[in-house]
Amino acid sequence: QVQLVESGGGLVRAGGSLRLSCAASGSFFSINVMGWYRQTPKSQRELVASITSGGNTRYLDSVKGRFTISRDNAKNTVYLQMNSLKPEDTAVYYCNVDGLLRDGRSYISWGQGTQVTVSS
Questions:
Q1: For residue 105, what are the contacts with CB-CB under 8 A and spacing of at least 6?
Q2: Are 95 and 38 in contact (CB under 8 A)?
Q3: pLDDT tens track for 59-116
Q4: How far is residue 91 from each of residues 26, 52, 80, measured CA to CA in Å?
Q5: CA distances from 25 to 3, 31, 37, 74, 76 (A)
Q6: Contact at 8 Å (CB) between 24 and 31?
Q7: Average pLDDT over residues 14-22
Q8: Residue 1 predicted with pLDDT over 90
Q9: For residue 120, which of 15, 8, 7 has the smallest C-alpha distance?
């Protein structure tokens, strides 16, 4: 009922930048928290950054000062600007959104994932 379409991943050299986008569509009443998670074959999925409907943000310690999360509520889209990328940022990045459906039920949706690879 809530679909997420991600874009913006790719291959970049260390020190470079990428911008991820995630657009939500479907029959929902509201979007509360929008966030980005990442996962590698050797690690559990971890929260990279999140932003509430009121604009409050939180970041993984290792990305503070390098990554910036933002959202465009009119477009139901969340962005992750990633600067000064490091090889250890290499992972599949997943968009995550939660909120309320039109019938009052809560939902949590995940994107399909986008690969970010940072070469040294």
A1: none
A2: no
A3: 999 999 999 999 999 999 999 999 999 999 999 999 999 999 999 999 999 999 999 9
A4: 27, 24, 14
A5: 5, 10, 19, 12, 7
A6: yes
A7: 98
A8: no
A9: 15
- State pLDDT tens for residues 40-63: 999 999 999 999 999 999 999 999
- Tokens representing 23? 């657009």
Q: Count how many residues are written for the chain.
A: 120
Beta strands per DSSP E along the chain: 2-7, 10-13, 18-26, 28-39, 46-51, 57-59, 67-72, 77-82, 91-101, 106-110, 114-119
Calculate the CA 93 to chain-centre distance: 7
Regarding beta strands 18-26 and 28-39, do their DSSP bridges make them parallel or antiparallel, or are they unpaired? Answer: unpaired
Structure tokens, 48? 């990279």
Pairing status of strand 18-26 against strand 2-7: antiparallel
